[in-house]
Design goal:
Helix content: 10-25%
Radius of gyration: 24 Å
Shape: globular
Amino acid sequence: MSIFSNCAGGRGRRIALALLLCACAGAVLGADAGAQPVHHAIVIEGMKFSPEVIEVNVGDTVAWTNKDAFPHTVTAENHSFDSKEIASGRSWKFKATERGVFPYVCSFHPTMRGKVVVK
C-alpha cells in the first residue's frame, strides 16, 4: 500500500512527485551557487606552457610562472589579455571573467602556444 493511497485520484502522488523534483532541482542548482573560485597554475619551462590547454570556470584565476632563463609573454590571439614581459622567476595572473576559448601565444616565441577554455 502506498503512502499516497488515501489521496483522491492520485493527486497527492503527483503533488509529492512535484515537490520531490523541486527539492532535487534546488539542491543541484544550489551546489554551484556557493562555489569558490579556483586558482590554476601553468608553468613556462623548456619553451612551452604546461599544461598547454586548461579548462577553468568564470571567476577562476590562472597564474603563469616563468621557469625559463629568459622572458616570455602570455598574449591572447584576440588581444583580450596580454601579460607583457614575464621575466625569469616571475609570474603573471589572469582572472577569467567571461566564457569562451582563448588561444594564446608567447609574442617573443610564436611557436609557444596554449589555450584557456573558460566554462
